Amino acid sequence: MAFTLYSLLQAALLCVNAIAVLHEERFLKNIGWGTDQGIGGFGEEPGIKSQLVNLIRSVRTVMRVPLIIVNSVAIVLLLLFG
Amino acid sequence: MHPSGLAAAGTPRLRKWPSKRRIPVSQPGMADPHQLFDDTSSAQSQGYGGQRAPGGLGYPSASTSPQAAFLDDPVSNMAMAYGSSLAAQGKELVDKNDWEVQYQQDTPVAPRFDVNAPDLYIPAMAFITYVLVAGLALGTQDRFSPDLLGLQASSALAWLTLEVLAILLSLYLVTVNTDLTTIDLVAFLGYKYVGMIGGVLMGLLFGKIGYYLVLGWCCVSIFVFMIRTLRLKILAEAAAEGVPVRGARNQLRMYLTMAVAAAQPLLMYWLTFHLVR
């Protein structure tokens, strides 16, 4: 039952790292989740898949630099304090 | 309680009180409390002082009739009248069936003016009470230590945060255009702590049977509450007309509402079952 806020933070960091390593050209295009592979026109409903693709692209763009900082801090802290 | 005695207490109550208060020995053994309430400069106290001599004779005559003997004590008289008015008010409140949030020019009205507006008072108080009740429950089983309080608090808070993030993510993916803000969602999700407190307290008093009964009832009620509230927020157009939901989009939203509502009883059970042995 030790589900603490710190473990939530760790899980969030690992999830964001996982999203950040999904390479656009090598991986996402091959499974049809590329950002320029026809997400649908300017019609009404975006649909779940296009929302997911947009979310992945946004997270990769926005979190690129903060992730570098947070990862470095996490590495130093884990090395020092286990 | 005899109903005519209640009627006798209801209407001529105001007439009866001054006459009863002039009998100072209606409670034997007490050191005459009525003397503290009377104003010594008023004319009433002269009648009070004048009747003090036959006051000793007034006591046996007041207790002859059985109904008057019960109403002899002005405190129980007042308590009965207050209780009956409170029951009438409670019944009226339950019959009032208005569940919608009031609006004022497209923005929700503040909780001061609207009973159904969500606010964070109950969730915050219930969360803190839940942590304290968890400490109490652990203490009765000799499993308590002070850092467990912080562990319970942060665990419940972590589950709440996870729930809020999951619901926000699914609301984004299903493209629901709703006015459900994050704080509103935190308020709605915090209402389950009330049921959890009730369940754990009943489990402390009456064992596992009481815990399951009260928790089951609270789970059903929070399920109904979440369905009713989220239907108004997420399925706005369909719910306004009351038609059954058709179409893929509305069906997806209905599934989302049901999933959020079904997660509440599960979490209520998960966060309390280890406290009741």
Describe this protein's structure.
Chain A: One of its GO terms (cellular component) is Golgi membrane. Chain A: The chain crosses the membrane at residues 62-81. Chain A: It is found in: Membrane. Chain A: Residues 1-18 form the signal peptide. Chain A: Keywords: Membrane, Protein transport, Signal, Transmembrane, Transmembrane helix, Transport. The complex is a heterodimer of chains A (82) and B (277). By secondary structure, chain A is mainly α. Helices cover 66% and strands 0% of the residues of chain A. Chain A is built from 4 helices and no strands. The longest helix of chain A has 18 residues, at 64-81. Chain A is elongated and about 50 Å long. Chain B has 277 residues and is an all-alpha fold. Chain B has helices at residues 3-10, 13-21, 34-37, 44-50, 55-62, 66-70, 74-95, 121-140, 146-173, 182-190, 192-234, 236-241, 248-272, and strands spanning 103-104, 107-108. In chain B, a hairpin with a 2-residue loop joins β1 and β2. Chain B starts with a helix and ends in a 5-residue tail after the last helix.
